[in-house]
Amino acid sequence: MNLESIPLQAFLTVSSILFCIGIWGLLNSRNAVRVLMSIELMLNAVNINLMAFSSYIDNNLIQGQVFTIFVITVAAAEAAVGLAILLSLYRNRVTVDMESFNLLKW
Amino acid sequence: MSIAVTTQIICFSVLSLVIILGALGVILLESIVYSAFLLGGVFMSVAGLYLLLNASFVAAAQVLVYVGAVNVLIIFAIMLVNKKEDLKPIDNIKSRRIISTSICLTLLSLLIRVDLSNIWRLADPQASIGEESTIRIGEHLFSDYLLPFEVASILLLMAMIGAIVLARRDVMNEDISTGLPVDQELIEKSNEPLLMKKN
After folding, report:
1. Which of B101, B119, B163, B176 could form a Cys-Cys staple with A84, CB 3.0–4.6 A?
2. What is the pLDDT of residue A95?
3. What pTM was estimated for this model as a whole?
């Protein structure tokens, strides 16, 4: 497909916006599940970046697509372990409020 | 795949709009269940962007792994920890919101400035392998990326074992500290958690 119609900058801008939304959610969510969702959003933004660069700049070797597959793998592992940690936190403290996990606070 | 230029632009605009609005919904909506389903929509739209970029294999992997596994896992987690609780209000919430929003906006403006001002050295579109990308990914995975590919399998095994160990319920009949029988339900209601007493 001829990709000249959509500029590379459009993909990069979308992924920047998605990444910043993810950071905002990470900083402001009270619910621990929503924090995990924000991390997934940020990982997706990074994946969009890698895919766009792979199609526009490295369109013959497409190493960016291989990297995206590895990022997807790591994200799946991260989600599984993160939700297991969340479950055991919930068993210990009977809440998912991020403000109550303050054992390491100064 | 050959799509007309106008169709491409329309597809890209609709997908980007769905991604950004969906992501805003994920972090802003009150109900966490709505957030989880919107997250699934965002993942599907990202897969659509990958299709637009001629990467059908990665789009399929995105749908299978993110929508099929990660999103289902998140919905299960919501089901397991879904308890209505009245959150304690934070006293300095306003200054926190202002600081975090300004940090995010600054980062966003920085990123967009870099995106737009940098001169990207685009490759020749004629050299693109287009629909052959799945074959090329297979070649990469079994030649120069063979070691990361194998390490990824070990990582997945470790994550699986770790998740089982962390989320497993202790099969003990009585509590060590109190000597009371442990209820075998998912949520331990009757026992006062030890760590809560600190607050």
Report:
1. B163
2. 84
3. 0.87
